Amino acid sequence: MTKLTFDITPIAIIDTPFQQKFTIPRQPNLANAPGIVKFTPEFADPRCLKGIETFSHLWLLFIFHETLSRGWKAAVKAPRLGGNNTLGVFASRSTHRPNGIGMSVVKNEGVKDVDGQKVLLVSGVDLLNGTPIVDIKPYLPYADALDNATDPLERYASIPNREVTFSEQAASYLQSAHNRYPQLQQLIQDILRQDPRPAYKHKLNDDPKTYHAALYDLDVSWRVIDGRIHVSKIAPADS
Ligand code: SAM
C-alpha cells in the first residue's frame, strides 16, 4: 500500500484553566470551563473567522500533545466495565491513539479583539491548557446530532454527582478572587462533583487522601468526606 504521510500544523493554541490532566472532565460540556483560542500568526487572518458567529457550537480538533510521545495502544482498559476489560482504541475516546487526534464540541462564545488580534472564546472545554488546535469546524445539528444514535456502554459510564462543600478559607478565597475569576466557584463545583478520582476509588465515601486540582494559577485542595467532596483550601499554586 502506498504510504501517505501528512504534515499537520497547529492553527492555534488554546488557553484553558486546566494546568494538569487530573480533574479535566472526560468529555466536553461536563463543566462550563472556558477556553480562549489564540491563533498562530499564519492563521490569525480575520477572513478565516467570517461567519463563525452564526454557529452556537464548534468542533475543535486538537492534538493530545501531552501524551503523544507515549504512542498509542490497540486496546485500552475500561475500568468502568469492571475488572480488566478492555476496549479497542477505535471503540474508545482514549488519548493514546494513532496520530493523537482529539475532537470536542464546545460552545461558541464569540470572537473578541485582544491587543489587535482576534481570539475565539469557547466554553465547555475538556482540554489541557496549551493544547494545539489543528482545525475548527462548525457543529451542524442536521448532520452531527443523530436522534437514533446509541451507546450500549453508556450505562457503565455514569458520572458521579457528589455534593461539593467549601471550607471557610476556600469560600473567602473565592470571594477575594471573584474579580479575576468570576466563574471559579461554579467551575470547581462542576469539576469536582464528578469525583475525578480514579474509578476504583469511587466506592470510597471517606478517603484520607488530599487531592489537588491545578486550575489557572491556583491549587485547589479537596477530600472526600462522608460522601461529599470538601474543598479544604484554595491558594496560589506557587505558595
Ligand atoms: N473530547 C475529546 C475526544 O473525545 O477526542 C477528548 C476526550 S479525552 C477522554 C479527555 C481527556 O483527555 C481529559 O480528561 C484529559 O485527561 C485528556 N487531555 C485533554 N487535553 C489533553 C492534551 N492536550 N494532551 C493529553 N491529554 C489531554
TrEMBL record:
Concerning Pfam families, the annotation shows: TrmO_C (PF18389), TrmO_N (PF01980)
Q: Which Gene3D superfamilies match?
A: YaeB-like (2.40.30.70)
Domain annotation TsaA-like: ranges: 8-148
Q: Which UniProt keywords apply?
A: Methyltransferase, S-adenosyl-L-methionine, Transferase
Q: Which domain of life is it from?
A: Bacteria
Looking up InterPro entries in the UniProt record yields: TrmO-like_N, TrmO_C, UPF0066_cons_site, YaeB-like, YaeB-like_sf, YaeB_N_sf
Q: What GO molecular function annotations does the UniProt record carry, in alphabetical order?
A: tRNA (L-threonylcarbamoyladenosine(37)-C2) methyltransferase activity
Q: Name one GO biological process term.
A: methylation
Family per record? Belongs to the tRNA methyltransferase O family.
> NCBIfam families from the xrefs?
tRNA_TsaA
Name the UniProt record assigns to this protein: tRNA (N6-threonylcarbamoyladenosine(37)-N6)-methyltransferase TrmO
